[in-house]
Each structure stands twice: as structure tokens, then as C-alpha cells.
């Protein structure tokens, strides 16, 4: 037997991706972390380059990945129990650190219970599997993350039991709710807290108000779900994410430990019956090994830091650097999407210019993400900048000067 025929077919498919402009670039390899020094934040060395790079494409909003407290917590847990769990959760793969993390994150977002997953992606998929039946209708924002789109597809409900509303359009959300069939028993409205390519947020207070008006129409009500992966830890006065910023909490909060908290893994926080249903029904939880105890210990420590004076200081610096960067773009007459979140899009609106600017920044030691046609529509070409708490005022000044000099 041979894979030659399959290889030939796949090679053709990959070539089509390249021709369409949808193929991913080769993955760059980080080979060294250089700690902050003087007025400069941390730098990274990339395999094959002599430059030292500022990462403005990192989700590690609070810059906790290299925090000594997280490293020590992970090291201690690993020495206690080893590097792997050795089993899935229901076959004695649950350690004290899993239990501690679930209780800690539930307390942090003010929900009765939580269940942790290997990622927010698998959390969304597991939630969809757990809550769906033939009488369930899902409604989502049109710009929802791929994990939510995938979750709605695998929820095993009829196609007609799904609705999509225009991005952050409350009138269109009402339209979707009005179109739900009379025999539906539960409606689930799901949306990102922070839309990761734009940096804008879902108006949870408005969504809750609209959904409350329809709740009595359905046997199990209208349930609101936020995936706040880009908000939790990095947004709001206390770092509790988009619900904190909006002063309104949905029924279910999905999130990650892999962004602001700087570790790995995802979670669902909700009522006790919902979380128990997830434990009993979610394939993406039941049939896979859990996070390592090192991940759990580090994530618990990260939440503790976020929930402390140190965390508030990190959040303050993150807000200051974000404001500094946005003000710099404004001075240069650059177009962005307004908002206080550390995802700051630069609207370039030209594919070749976007490619040229990404390359220019790379050549000058700055890592960013460019989004071009056909990934985004023509005219919406964007460069996404992501501010982190480790960035310094000097770092931001340097990047703004580069943007000023680019022709």
C-alpha cells in the first residue's frame, strides 16, 4: 500500500489554496526569549533571523507566561504528580489541581460551577453537544469565532434550527428570535465577548435585555452564552472581561487560560446542572486527557495574580499602552476600529500594501498579523496589533515611528 495517489490529490488541493491566497505562510520558529531590559520590553529571536523581535501578535495580554509565580506553581505541581494525568477525567484522571482550578475560575467570574477543557475551542464544541436536542435553536453573531461556528455545526440539530444575526445588530437579533419555530423548547444565543480581529465587543447588557423579552415563549427559556476568550483577564475594570465592562453577565461564560492568563486550556462556567450536563455529555471533555497539573497550577496562580493589586497594575499598564498606541495611530491619521481593548486593528484597505507593511515591520523587528483578500473582503484588509502588559512606552513609540516612516 502507498499514499502516493492521496499525496498527489492533496498536493493539488494545497496548490489551489495557494492560488486563492488562503494558504498559511510557513510557521516561524521562536528560538529564544530575551527578558525585559531597561526601557525595553521582552524580545524574541526567530530561527533564521538575526533580529530581536517585539511581539505585537501575541494573545498573552497580561504577559504572565514568564511570570516566576506561574513557573514555580507549574514546577511544584509537576514534581508532585508528574507531567501527565495518565487517564481521562472520569477514569481517575482528575487531580486536586483540576478541582482547584475549576473552583477558582467559577469564583472569579461569579458563576456557581465550572468545567475545564484542553482549549476554549473544545469547550464551545462540548457545550453545544451538551445543550442541544431536537427542540433546540441556536442563534449566533455573524462574526463569531470559528470554534462557535463549528460548535453550531456539530450540535446535531436541524439546519432550520439555526439563525445568524448581523454583527452586533440588536434589531437583527430580534428578527432571529421572532423567526424561531413555535415548537422549539430552548433557544441559545451565543456570541464572542471580544471579536478578535476587530477589538470591538458584544453589548451583553443589550443582548440580555432583548433575550429576556422572549424567555417566557420557550419551555427552557432563552440562554445567553459568551465566549470571552479575548476579554477575560484583559478587559474591564477588574479584568473580568466583557461582562465586567458591560456590567452584565450572560447565563454561560466560555473562556480560555491561553490568552491573558498566559497558560493553556479552556473553561465553561455556568449553573451546577449545566456543568454536570457538560461532564456527562461533552465528548470533547469525556474522551480526551485533561490539562496537566502544571497547566492547572499555573492557571490558578494566574487568576490569583489577576485578582490582586499586581494584576490591577498589569491591567493599568495594558490600558495605558493601548491608549498610547491608539493615540499614535490617530496622530498619524491612520484608520482603526475604536475601542479600549488591546486588540487594535489598522485598516490598510489594500492587499499589496498590507503585505508590504507586514514585511517592513518584520524587517524592523516587529511581529504582526496581516489579513488580506480573500480571507477578508477587498477593501477590508487589516493589520491586527495586540498590545501586552509587558510592552513599554519606548516599545510603542518605536512602532509608531516605524508606521510613520513607512511609505
Summarize the structure in short.
This protein has 407 residues and is α/β, with parallel strands linked by helices. Helices cover 42% and strands 16% of the residues. It is globular and about 60 Å long.
Q: What report would you give on this structure?
A:
By secondary structure, the protein is an alpha/beta fold. It has two domains: 19-66 and 311-405, Aspartate Aminotransferase, domain 1 (Alpha-Beta Complex); 68-306, Aspartate Aminotransferase, domain 2. Helices cover 42% and strands 16% of the residues. It has 15 helices and 14 strands. The chain has a seven-stranded mixed beta sheet with strand order 4-10-9-8-7-5-6, sandwiched between helices. Helix 2 packs antiparallel against helix 12, helix 7 (170-178) runs parallel beside helix 8 (204-212) and helix 13 (309-331) runs parallel beside helix 15 (393-405). The longest helix has 23 residues, at 309-331. It is globular, with a radius of gyration of 22 Å. The termini are far apart.
Number of helices: 15
Strand numbers in spatial order across the main sheet: 4-10-9-8-7-5-6
Reported by name, the CATH topology of the largest domain is Aspartate Aminotransferase, domain 2
**Gap between N and C termini, in Å?**
55 Å
CATH architecture of the largest domain: 3-Layer(aba) Sandwich
- Globally, the shape reads globular
Percent helix, as a range, is: 40-55%
Structural class call reads: alpha/beta
CATH superfamily of the largest domain: Type I PLP-dependent aspartate aminotransferase-like (Major domain)
Measured by DSSP, the beta-strand proportion falls in 15-25%
How many strands, what sense, and barrel or not for the largest sheet?
7 strands, mixed
DSSP strand count: 14
Output mean pLDDT. 96
Amino acid at each position: 500500500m502507498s499514499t502516493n495517489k492521496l499525496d498527489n490529490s492533496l498536493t493539488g488541493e494545497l496548490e489551489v489554496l495557494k492560488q486563492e491566497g488562503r494558504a498559511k505562510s510557513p510557521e516561524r520558529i521562536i528560538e529564544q526569549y530575551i527578558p525585559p531590559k531597561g526601557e525595553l520590553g521582552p524580545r524574541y529571536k526567530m530561527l533564521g533571523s538575526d533580529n530581536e523581535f517585539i511581539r505585537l501578535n501575541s494573545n498573552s495580554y497580561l504577559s504572565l507566561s514568564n511570570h516566576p509565580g506561574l513557573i514555580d506553581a507549574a514546577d511544584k505541581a509537576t514534581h508532585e504528580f508528574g507531567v501527565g494525568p495518565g487517564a481521562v477525567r472520569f477514569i481517575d484522571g482528575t487531580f486536586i489541581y483540576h478541582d482547584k482550578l475549576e473552583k477558582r475560575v467559577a469564583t472569579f467570574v461569579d458563576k456557581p460551577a465550572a468545567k475545564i477543557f484542553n482549549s476554549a475551542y473544545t469547550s464551545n464544541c462540548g457545550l453545544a453537544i451538551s445543550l442541544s436536542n431536537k427542540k433546540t435553536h441556536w442563534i449566533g453573531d455573524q462574526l463569531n469565532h470559528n470554534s462557535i461556528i463549528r460548535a453550531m455545526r456539530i450540535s446535531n440539530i436541524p439546519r432550520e434550527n439555526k439563525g445568524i444575526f448581523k454583527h452586533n445588530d440588536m434589531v437583527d437579533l430580534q428578527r432571529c428570535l421572532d423567526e424561531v419555530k413555535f415548537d422549539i423548547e430552548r433557544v441559545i444565543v451565543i456570541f464572542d465577548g471580544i471579536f478578535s480581529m476587530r477589538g470591538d465587543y458584544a453589548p451583553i447588557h443589550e443582548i440580555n435585555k432583548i433575550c429576556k423579552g422572549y424567555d417566557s415563549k420557550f419551555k427552557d427559556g432563552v440562554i445567553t452564552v459568551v465566549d470571552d476568550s479575548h476579554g477575560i483577564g484583559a478587559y474591564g475594570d477588574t479584568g473580568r472581561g466583557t461582562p465586567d465592562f458591560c456590567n452584565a453577565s450572560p447565563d454561560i461564560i466560555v473562556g480560555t487560560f491561553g490568552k491573558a492568563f498566559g497558560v493553556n486550556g479552556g473553561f465553561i462556567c455556568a449553573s451546577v446542572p449545566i456543568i454536570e450536563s457538560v461532564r456527562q455529555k461533552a465528548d470533547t471533555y469525556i474522551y480526551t486527557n485533561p490539562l496537566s497539573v502544571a497547566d492547572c497550577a499555573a492557571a490558578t496562580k494566574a487568576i490569583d495574580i489577576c485578582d490582586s493589586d499586581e494584576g490591577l497594575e498589569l491591567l493599568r499598564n495594558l490600558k495605558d499602552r493601548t491608549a498610547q498606541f491608539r493615540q499614535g495611530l490617530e496622530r498619524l491619521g491612520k484608520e482603526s476600529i475604536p475601542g479600549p481593548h488591546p486588540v487594535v486593528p489598522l485598516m490598510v484597505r489594500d492587499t499589496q500594501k498590507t503585505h508590504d507593511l507586514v514585511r517592513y515591520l518584520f524587517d524592523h523587528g516587529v511581529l504582526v498579523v496581516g489579513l488580506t483578500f480573500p480571507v477578508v473582503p477587498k477593501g477590508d484588509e487589516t493589520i491586527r496589533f495586540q498590545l501586552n502588559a509587558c510592552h513599554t512606552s519606548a516599545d510603542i513609540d518605536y512602532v509608531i515611528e516605524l508606521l510613520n516612516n513607512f511609505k
